[in-house]
Design the sequence.
């Protein structure tokens, strides 16, 4: 079996875990996986908290994150801490993304319906590819699907062929 | 059978084969406490190691299962005394017919002792070998003295500390004697003057002489070298001396201050006997902090001079050994391989890399390496009784490659970054500045995706220099080498690399 690095295209001399040339990961690991649970195993059953009044802490994120669509210069602001799924809306879709890129020629640029998830909490921001068809690059580095990567101010994210810059603003 | 010394259920719990149920239960409770993921936040492979211990207990605590297991174990295989040994593999099996497969093994050694024994630290027999050449004057010397005097005040009456100062000649400032008056020692060290050049051999040979005066298997013997300069023309002699020291069971560790010292030479020197090297940037308190840490770690040693003698399997080759804890650093694969020490708290974790050529492998098992592991436990006066080990992987036709344990991937990933800078250094040494610069830029990209911004910036600056044919600068070289090394240090927490923003 000949192993070729997906990131830099070099053929590997050895069947290693990471590319000896560019340091990218060569193996596919499972990422997030659904585990079967055995309903017959005894134990404590936790009941879910009702959403009403459970959110007592007002979001106090470091700042606001804006998505800057580089080609058109458009700025899409996100509402403070939380999780945002970025993708495009198409007909007959049951789960809708939080940020719809369809108005910015998303389909033509190869953006998936549910492409990436951006998570913003009090201190950190992260990005995770949701198994998109054309993949995601962060500062030109290909992301493994279903793995969280740290996202910082001014990072450039490529969804398919669409480039978006993360800008932290007030 | 794949269950030999380094990976059998008795070794996992650190008990002899004759252990009764009570002993097994006690050992399990101790092990479970130490390996519990809650106590091991961020430790490489903590979860997986916990499961290995669990599995061992499940079998050994059930008389039927234990009998069946014992029957499968060769007679002469036993658990090591008072040490838990676990091995994690990056592959469940290897595939026949394929050359160039890489298998990583994470070895984890932990003391298996009660709480009381934990406080029973063996006495120290340490020599501080201190560079007092002209360049050490001022802040550097001040900080070294401060750390040394603090260390002296923590010594117990059983500890022995000697101090040797060297420039082009060596001078014994404090001879190796027990129970000296701390106040007098501190005043003697504070009168040190700086002058002359740096000849490390002079210092080391005087330091070794001091340690050998009180050499006992029941104490922790160690030489700590503190220097800020390149040594002149005596590197080969230094290395020979380090080998002699190693043969007598005296490891050498080093703290390099500032930019001028030769980190490649120092690494070679300390890895001869399982010591470690540290880089102290020339900032106001860094030297003091690092030296203090280094010295206090010495009094926290459980087993010393842990070493492997091995023979590669017919189709395998040990390529690389790297220590993840207690002190992060590369280990020379020259025989015997000195792994370092097992601390009282935490573990000795070593990552081994094997290259396997399976083009001729048949179904069955493939031996990575076999040999023996030996160590000294000063507090127990355990005779340096080597125990056999055998690292084996099953050969399975058409096996679907499975992903290594997540924790292992993480460690291997960090190691691959360290090796990228190593390869870049090799390129630069060969005069291939462009190639080295390219590698450096790749490294910077990887560092950026992991959020290591300041280190990535340093790497990019170095890449620019290399691209213009300037070679790896002393300063960037050290920052990058020790910076990528620090990525693997799980004990340092978040405060690992602090470059300029």
Sequence:
């Amino acid at each position: 079996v000949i192993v070729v690095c997906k990131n830099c295209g070099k053929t590997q001399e050895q069947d290693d875990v990471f590319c000896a040339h560019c340091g990218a990961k060569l193996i596919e690991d499972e990422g997030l996986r659904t585990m079967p649970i055995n309903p017959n195993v005894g134990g404590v059953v936790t009941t879910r908290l009702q959403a009403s009044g459970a959110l007592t802490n007002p979001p106090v994120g470091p700042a606001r994150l804006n998505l800057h669509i580089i080609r058109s210069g458009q700025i899409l602001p996100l509402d403070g801490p939380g999780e945002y799924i970025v993708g495009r809306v198409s007909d007959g879709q049951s789960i809708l993304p939080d940020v719809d890129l369809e108005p910015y020629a998303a389909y033509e640029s190869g953006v998936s319906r549910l492409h990436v998830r951006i998570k913003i909490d009090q201190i950190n921001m992260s990005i995770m590819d949701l198994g998109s068809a054309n993949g995601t690059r962060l500062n030109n580095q290909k992301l493994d699907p279903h793995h969280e990567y740290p996202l910082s101010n001014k990072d450039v994210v490529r969804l398919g062929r669409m480039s978006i810059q993360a800008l932290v603003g007030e | 059978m794949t269950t030999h010394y380094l990976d059998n259920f008795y070794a996992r719990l650190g008990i002899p084969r004759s252990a009764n149920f009570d002993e097994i239960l006690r050992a399990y409770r101790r092990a479970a406490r130490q390996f519990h993921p809650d106590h091991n936040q961020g430790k490489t492979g903590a979860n997986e190691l916990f499961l290995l211990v669990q599995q061992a207990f499940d079998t050994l605590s059930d008389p039927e299962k234990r009998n069946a297991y014992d029957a499968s174990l060769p007679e002469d295989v036993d658990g090591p005394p008072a040490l838990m040994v676990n091995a994690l593999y990056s592959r469940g099996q290897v595939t026949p017919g394929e050359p160039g497969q890489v298998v990583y093994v994470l070895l984890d050694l932990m003391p298996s002792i009660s709480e009381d024994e934990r406080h029973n630290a063996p006495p120290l027999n340490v020599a501080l070998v201190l560079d007092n050449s002209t360049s050490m004057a001022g802040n550097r010397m001040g900080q070294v003295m401060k750390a040394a005097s603090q260390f002296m005040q923590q010594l117990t009456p059983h500890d022995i500390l000697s101090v040797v100062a060297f420039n082009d000649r060596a001078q014994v400032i404090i001879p190796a004697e027990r129970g000296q008056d701390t106040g007098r020692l501190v005043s003697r060290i504070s009168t040190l003057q700086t002058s002359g050049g740096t000849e490390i051999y002079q210092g080391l040979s005087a330091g070794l002489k001091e340690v050998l005066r009180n050499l006992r298997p029941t104490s922790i013997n160690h030489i700590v070298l503190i220097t800020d300069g390149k040594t002149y023309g005596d590197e080969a002699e230094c290395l020979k001396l380090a080998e002699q020291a190693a043969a007598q069971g005296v490891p050498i560790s080093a703290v390099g201050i500032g930019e001028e010292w030769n980190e490649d030479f120092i690494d070679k020197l300390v890895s001869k006997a399982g010591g470690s090297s540290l880089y102290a940037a020339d900032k106001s308190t860094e030297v003091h902090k690092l030296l203090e840490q280094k010295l206090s770690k010495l009094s926290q040693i459980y087993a010393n001079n842990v070493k492997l003698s091995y023979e590669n399997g017919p189709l395998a080759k040990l390529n690389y050994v790297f220590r993840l804890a207690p002190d992060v650093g590369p280990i020379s694969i020259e025989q015997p391989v000195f792994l370092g020490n097992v601390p009282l708290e935490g573990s000795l974790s070593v990552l081994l890399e094997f290259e396997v050529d399976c083009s001729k492998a048949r179904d069955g098992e493939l031996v990575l390496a076999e040999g023996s592991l030996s160590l000294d436990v000063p507090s127990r006066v355990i005779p340096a009784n080597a125990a056999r080990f055998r690292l084996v992987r099953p050969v399975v036709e058409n096996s679907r490659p499975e992903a290594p344990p997540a924790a292992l991937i993480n460690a291997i990933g960090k190691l691959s970054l360290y090796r990228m800078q190593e390869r870049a250094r090799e390129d630069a040494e060969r005069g291939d500045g462009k190639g080295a610069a390219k590698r450096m830029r790749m490294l910077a990209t990887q560092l950026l995706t992991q959020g290591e911004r300041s280190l990535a910036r340093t790497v990019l600056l170095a890449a620019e220099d290399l691209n213009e044919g300037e070679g790896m600068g002393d300063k960037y070289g050290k920052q990058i080498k020790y910076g990528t090394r620090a990525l693997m240090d799980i004990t340092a927490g978040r405060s690992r690399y602090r470059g300029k923003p």
